[in-house]
Specification:
The chain is an alpha+beta fold. The protein has two helices and three strands, in the order ααβββ. It has a three-stranded mixed sheet, with helices on one face. Strand 2 and strand 3 form a beta hairpin. It is globular, with a radius of gyration of 23 Å.
Length: 111
């Protein structure tokens, strides 16, 4: 009985692990990670603030912030308001948009 239970458990583990494989999918293709997020915008990686410096002076609407994130290649973007407490850790995948009291972008930096 123990042999049967051990064999059954081993078979279950092997089947579960093979279900996680990204190679040799049943339909003949291979699984690839999604390159777009839930909004359809490309997922980012390392941030580059240079392409979005032209946004300085614009209002920090949701559309402008998402456009900045996509154009900079960042994984995420945050809007930082005057006097707001922020974390100081550096994140190479994050775009920081500093805004004034009126919500206009004053500085664009990665980190």
């Amino acid at each position: 009985m123990r042999f049967f239970a051990a064999t059954l458990a081993t078979t279950a583990v092997v089947l579960l692990a093979s279900g996680c494989s990204t190679a040799n999918m049943p339909w003949g293709g291979t699984a690839t990670p999604s390159t777009t997020g839930p909004t359809g915008a490309p997922l980012g990686g390392t941030c580059n603030a240079q392409p979005v410096q032209g946004l300085i002076g614009q209002n920090s609407t949701a559309k402008v912030v998402e456009d900045a994130r996509v154009r900079s290649g960042a994984h995420l973007a945050r809007v930082l308001r005057p006097g707001q407490m922020v974390t100081k850790e550096f994140d190479a995948q994050r775009l920081n948009l500093y805004v004034d009291e009126a919500g206009r972008i004053t500085t664009v930096q990665c980190g």
